[in-house]
Amino acid sequence: MTVGIVAWPDAELSQAVTAIWRAVADAGCPSLIGTLQIPHLSFVVADSFDDDAVARACGAVPREPIQIDAVTIGVFPGGVVHLGIRPMTALLEEHRRVQAAAAPYLVEPRPYFAPDEWSPHITIAMGLDTDQVSRAVSAALTSLPLSGHLVRGGIEDGDTGHRIPL
């Protein structure tokens, strides 16, 4: 089980990401289309945390809309294909704020979301083999660049899809 503190993009960017998920699926690859996921950018991921304590500590996420630009397609180990988000100052500052506020309450936080380790991204697909990665990247690449804003956020359970707005 994993939970996260995430930010959700505006409607236009969310629709664009969903269209990429669909294009990846149409290319014969498993994508996040049809799952419990909705487009999001994760600031924190951990095995668990106290939702109420984290909500009190973090307050609104993001505190104000944050401009984001998806400018690359990347691949993490395990066949995770993602939209790489340009690491602009406002985004990095919000990430540090949320990480610092939530840190005392996290159980087994994922180290690759820690400040100075984090690669801001929006996931497109997970668990792909090499051939699928190639097809997914090709399907997604024609959609770049994308721009929008992170306009709201919350706590999200990656396994159940349960969301608590912050």
From TrEMBL:
It comes from the Bacteria. GO terms for molecular function: ligase activity. Keywords: Ligase. The keyword Ligase applies. It holds the Pfam family 2_5_RNA_ligase2. This is 2'-5' RNA ligase family protein. The lineage of its organism: Bacteria, Bacillati, Actinomycetota, Actinomycetes, Nakamurellales.
